[in-house]
Amino acid sequence: MLDMFRSDTRAIEGLPVRLVVALVVGVASMSVMLNMLSGVQGLATSELDVKPTPDVVGPGEQALDFTVVDHEGNPVEGATVIVKSGTAEIDGVATAKSDDGGSATVNVDAELGANREDGTLVVDVKPPAGESFVDRRENTNVLVVQD
Predict the structure, then answer these.
(1) Measured between alpha carbons, how far is 147 from 57 in angstroms, rounded to an integer?
(2) 37/54 same-domain check
(3) By the 8 A CB rule, do 100 and 68 touch?
(4) Is 47 helix (H, G, I), strand (E, B) or coil?
(5) In this structure, are strands 94-97 and 56-57 parallel, antiparallel, or unpaired?
(6) 11 with 80, same domain?
(7) In what residue span(s) does the DUF7382 domain sit (predicted)?
(8) Domain, as residue range, for 132
């Protein structure tokens, strides 16, 4: 019986064809599965952006208005806007939550260092909990200029 397997060369000839068929079927199946996954919007995330108004201010106490929007420009409710010192200084960190129109107002008392004519306040945004938003890119900073 062992001699029968030694003389049979068909398995060697059929093996590459079977591997090619298995590879083609595997690639086709994988492309269908990946296409199904890319259509699921629940896995996608949306970049948030913060638009300050005004984006250029003088030193002193003032209210800064911010609008939090998604990548399509729609307002985002429940995001936390964070303003902190950059090259211009404020005491601590100022925060506010965006309302249903995406608006948030932060009160700051900006100061410029000695011999500085301008500086910036850094603006960050923390996405609302449980949503598919992220803030990976740098937001527009607020420029503080000497009057």
Answers:
(1) 9
(2) no
(3) no
(4) strand
(5) unpaired
(6) no
(7) 43-107
(8) 47-145
Q: How far is CA 63 from the centre of its chain?
A: 27
- Single-letter amino acid, residue 142: V
Q: Which pLDDT score is estimated for 63?
A: 92
Q: Which residues pair with 121 in a beta bridge?
A: 85, 142
Going residue by residue through the chain, which has 147 residues, state the pLDDT in tens, using 9 for 90 and above. 666 666 666 655 655 777 788 888 888 888 888 777 655 544 557 788 888 888 888 999 999 999 998 888 889 899 999 999 988 999 999 999 999 998 999 999 999 888 888 999 999 999 888 777 887 788 888 899 987
> Are 93 and 111 part of one and the same domain?
yes
104 with 38, same domain: the answer is no
Helix (H, G, I), strand (E, B) or coil at 67: strand
Say if residue 54 is in the same domain as residue 94.
Answer: yes
Query: What whole-number distance in Å separates Cα of residue 140 and Cα of residue 121?
Result: 9
Looking at the fold, whether 38 and 97 belong to one and the same domain comes out as no
The verdict on 137 and 74 lying in the same domain is yes
Q: Give yes or no: residues 132 and 107 share one domain.
A: yes
pTM exceeds cut of 0.90: no
Encoding tokens for residue 16? 């590459």
